[in-house]
Amino acid sequence: MEQYEAIQQAAYDANMQLPALGLVLFTFGNASACDRDLGVFAIKPSGVAYEKLRPADMVIVDFDGNTVNGTMRPSSDTLTHAVLYKNWENIGGIVHTHSTYATAWAQTQTDIPIFGTTHADHLTEDIPCAPVMSDEMIEGDYEYQTGFQIMNAFADRNLSPEEVEMVLVANHAPFSWGKSVEKAVYNSAVLEEVAKMAWLTRQIRPDAPRLKPALIRKHFERKHGSGAYYGQE
Amino acid sequence: MEQYEAIQQAAYDANMQLPALGLVLFTFGNASACDRDLGVFAIKPSGVAYEKLRPADMVIVDFDGNTVNGTMRPSSDTLTHAVLYKNWENIGGIVHTHSTYATAWAQTQTDIPIFGTTHADHLTEDIPCAPVMSDEMIEGDYEYQTGFQIMNAFADRNLSPEEVEMVLVANHAPFSWGKSVEKAVYNSAVLEEVAKMAWLTRQIRPDAPRLKPALIRKHFERKHGSGAYYGQE
Amino acid sequence: MEQYEAIQQAAYDANMQLPALGLVLFTFGNASACDRDLGVFAIKPSGVAYEKLRPADMVIVDFDGNTVNGTMRPSSDTLTHAVLYKNWENIGGIVHTHSTYATAWAQTQTDIPIFGTTHADHLTEDIPCAPVMSDEMIEGDYEYQTGFQIMNAFADRNLSPEEVEMVLVANHAPFSWGKSVEKAVYNSAVLEEVAKMAWLTRQIRPDAPRLKPALIRKHFERKHGSGAYYGQE
Amino acid sequence: MEQYEAIQQAAYDANMQLPALGLVLFTFGNASACDRDLGVFAIKPSGVAYEKLRPADMVIVDFDGNTVNGTMRPSSDTLTHAVLYKNWENIGGIVHTHSTYATAWAQTQTDIPIFGTTHADHLTEDIPCAPVMSDEMIEGDYEYQTGFQIMNAFADRNLSPEEVEMVLVANHAPFSWGKSVEKAVYNSAVLEEVAKMAWLTRQIRPDAPRLKPALIRKHFERKHGSGAYYGQE
């Protein structure tokens, strides 16, 4: 339907960028775009090859995970997207990949330490790794609980989803988000690059120190605050 | 001959995908497609460059390794394919590559541990590494024995080739298979990606734990069993 | 304006080469070209995607960092470029990237040791890593101070910017330069390759020795001195 | 001149394949093709970008390193090629690269151990690393002595250049050769892949054992000897 075309197109474009950026193999990822006025998001159908996708294939789902429009089954990770859209009111797009380096960090169940300004230009915290889910959560509604596992990790650490737009889920893989799905795609590529750099840094120097506070603060202020001076806006 | 065209085309397409997916350098791989009604499979000729291959070049071989149709010598690994088709009745395609990360694991003679859900989405066991062959097997009919070495490893561990569609052969390289040769190609790409992720995981955290049982079970059930909900089928 | 067209075109071409050479992701880099007669340089505007850049977008800046021509805000690293042009009279182009391997070395705060002739063909010193900036420098005029941090590192080690055309800034990333911006781009690609080789060398053999003095001297003489015999000039 | 066209074309094609195969950055490599009847070889001119090369630019040089035809200066590694052609009568092409993984092994001054059948399908020895040259050799006629350093390493280990068609020169980089320059290019790509696999093997398992003798022998016999059965010949 016409009212969904904008988010279907945005979700489609975002999904198509994931293999182009080297972030997904086959169908190992999904992107969604949200329309807050309509209270729905458009998401990739489950297990369909990227080369066969069309914008109109994007399934329209509400924030409780009910399919509102579309004939195909939505991505198996749809409930995770729904939980995040429902609870985090300022995000407009979500991306999930199994990108190689970020997923390897997730498999180690550890945060990605902030080692340099490439990282600090995007977030001034270690990239959090939400802990392994309890057996109860796994055996319950798994994808729904994955959304809560992410939210709980942010609550426990007092992190804001507007400041930290990416997370690892232990033994699983990364999720990223942003004001738009374009920003969420950008964040997933940044996360993969930062994950690779952090791995290399540790390989060269196992005791490499985290970035010092003055540099973290400086890079935060360059992009935020009253004196921000990065970009054209 | 016309009756072989379907498997020749399928084998050809699969062989051509291997360099496109970055899984083979030069001629370091081969794919075959099986027709169980005819009791034969089509396989790449030995040592021919991928850019010169044509569908009609695929050699037709029976399950004892005899060439039934074709003027070129079949792949030097043909007998391994023949043994697997003869003994495992439900497989329709086989792929052999020397893909970089999977081959490195094979060279270490160790299984690839299950570290995350990328792995568990495809198989819920460590990826088995068949042990180094005995001198007697090597000095006998080497490629034929390679097939038995793979089958013996599955029998010893009580693994099913319908559940675990990939194996490493120690000091050699991976084999994968599936209901179709398309699925076998898919599995060889998944294996390479999982092999890379497992290597990185160990590099970042040498004592990284295997995926916990509840997550292994959950991912098995997502794709199998009565409540399966992945994909469009 | 017409007088700036040559350096705008050179800076544009150089900026476009950075993603083509795999040295930058999104907008994580910038290149500038200098006209010493006019006392200005052309540099990429801040945060503009490479695919949208046009030569006329290059901002013209003087050696004190003042915008002389152009409507967009120049790169946030502009003051670092300005300081280097002002103080190092023989350089005509500068490139800054966050290329993966060089940035990982920067994050370890260590020099890249000279392990082989690939390195020695370009410079006969370890690639220097300027130390982490003091809190005072960071909290002052950060990008301006980054330029001084680089110059101080060269002064402390008695290095010449004509002989050593690249540097790492600790916890940040590499800068390179040369007589022209084309040479600066070339140097940034060489640095990334040498950084990768040095990492691999240490991985294979943690106590790998530096290149011995006779080989360092020989490679210096092949490209410099009266008996130089590399290239067509 | 017309008589040189065949080797000029062969050398040109080979040089152009090096960047296509990912084996050289910029001009970090050279390939030559030999005509034994004429007693000359065609080699890339020094320091010319690959995208500007034409077949007629290939310089014709005799086995003592004298330029016989051509206006450009031949590759700075020409004397190494000349020494090998003069002393090893059965080789028809030589390739020198600074390919990343092979060069890293060279920088560690160690042989690449034979860990698997990918290696054994091409040579049944560790890939030899010629030792670092003595100061006398370096300060003498460096590139000429590099050729002797390679030949001495083969003589000391009793290796045949017909069986082992590749070598590392310590702290420098690899050389490969073959009956034709096409085979030499092939060998340089094989070497790079085997070098990467051997590095990964050691990373996963530092004490990984060498391939056992029965497998080495088997793979030697598959390609050589009276019972060879690999390829179409």
What does this structure look like?
With 233 residues, chain A is of the alpha+beta class. Chain A has a single domain, classed as L-fuculose-1-phosphate Aldolase. Helices cover 41% and strands 15% of the residues of chain A. Chain A contains eight helices and eight strands. Chain A has helices spanning 5-20, 78-87, 100-108, 117-120, 135-139, 142-157, 181-204, 213-223, and strands at 29-35, 40-43, 59-62, 67-69, 93-97, 129-130, 166-169, 174-178. Chain A has an eight-stranded mixed sheet, with helices on both faces. In chain A, α2 (78-87) packs parallel to α6 (142-157) and α3 crosses α7. The longest helix of chain A has 24 residues, at 181-204. Chain A starts with a helix and ends in a 10-residue tail after the last helix. At the A-B interface, α3, α5 and α7 of A face α7 and α8 of B.
The assigned CATH architecture of chain A is 3-Layer(aba) Sandwich
- Helix tally of chain A equals 8
The value of Rg of chain A in angstroms is 18 Å
Q: In CATH's first tier, which class of chain A applies?
A: Alpha Beta
Span between termini of chain A: 34 Å
Overall helicity of chain A: 40-55%
- Main sheet specs of chain A: 8 strands, mixed
User: Which consecutive residue ranges of chain A, at least 5 long each, have pLDDT under 50?
Assistant: none
How would you sum up the global shape of chain A? Answer: globular
Number of domains of chain A: 1
Number of DSSP E strands of chain A: 8
Task: Tell me the strand order in the biggest sheet of chain A.
Answer: 4-3-2-1-5-8-7-6
Give the H and E element order of chain A: HEEEEHEHHEHHEEHH
